[in-house]
Amino acid sequence: MSAKLTNTSVSHASAPGQPILQVDDLKKHFPLRGGLFGGVTGQVYAVDGVSFEIAKGETLSLVGESGCGKSTVGKAVLRLFDITAGQVVLDGTRIDTLPASTLRPMRRRVQVVFQDPFSSLNPRMRVKDILAEPIRNFGMAKDSADLDRRLAHLMDTVRLPRDAINRWPHEFSGGQRQRIGIARALAAEPDLIICDEAVSALDVSVKAQIVNLLQDLQKELGLALLFISHDLAIVEHMTHRVAVMYLGKIVEVAPRRSLFAAPKHPYTQALLSAVPVPQPGAARQRIILKGDVPSPINPPSGCRFHTRCPYVFDRCRVEEPLLKPTEPGHTAACHLHDLPAAQNPLSGEASPLH
């Protein structure tokens, strides 16, 4: 990387205080339609019982393979669709049951940065109008002079020249467009920003610049971030805590250092084994999972990971594991942790089960 990643925001990982966001047993099932008359023939269990919280000024990264449901979680928090079950609570107020007519205050407090900086900006609007839109929508500017001041400040905040504000989106590079997307999210002065694969479409060096910008903004503004990503190398540099998803469920939640140093779920172990080692000449034993991810239309019984787990035993096939503490602040959904340490291959004290 030509731009070095920093860890500026990780210094305040404890992030005390009331959570800005609480998600309790969130479920989103999409109807599957087919047949001659287009009737409902089944359900897609995209998200099936997800719970987490984010403190003010904290970054929680939601990671997992494509199709695990992490982006659906972000869209559910944004109220882009109604959820099937569960609760979404923003700063003490439940928002999943709010009627559409009363959502405006929530919309201002929760903003999003999308994955593709090329399609997320209206090509027919100048940057000035793109950034002014949320300010006007929420009635935040007193007059035109105040609006101009706010726009200039936004350009300064995302490290873009002020005179670029009259240009069109196609005149910017991908990284610059993503900075505009971040500025648009900041225009509403939100408490929480959902970054849905916000750097995955960018070049490697540009990724580092955007990640560093997000860290700086979090430190300056006290923002909370839900950082949805499949790139664990990026996540390791910018998050406070990590929640790992597999097939619609969270299987492990832990502080960044704890998770990367000692993962407590076999799926997390496999994910981390695929992350490139930054030190030249260093090696890491790669864990190759057998089989493919099962379909969310018909997820396996018991532990959803048991069809691919190298440590599977009989209980895994019939009983769904619950998220339980394995150490302070670190939880995992795995029956292995109910075994004695000498029989648990994740404890570091055991011989393999088979």
TrEMBL record:
PROSITE patterns: ABC_TRANSPORTER_1, ABC_TRANSPORTER_2. Residues 21-272 form the ABC transporter domain. Keywords: ATP-binding, Nucleotide-binding, Transport. It is a peripheral membrane protein. Its main location: membrane. The lineage of its organism: Bacteria, Pseudomonadati, Pseudomonadota, Alphaproteobacteria, Acetobacterales. PANTHER family: D,D-DIPEPTIDE TRANSPORT ATP-BINDING PROTEIN DDPF-RELATED, TRANSPORT ATP-BINDING PROTEIN. It is found in: Cell inner membrane. Pfam families: ABC_tran, oligo_HPY. Belongs to the ABC transporter superfamily. GO terms for molecular function: ATP binding. This is ATP-binding cassette domain-containing protein.
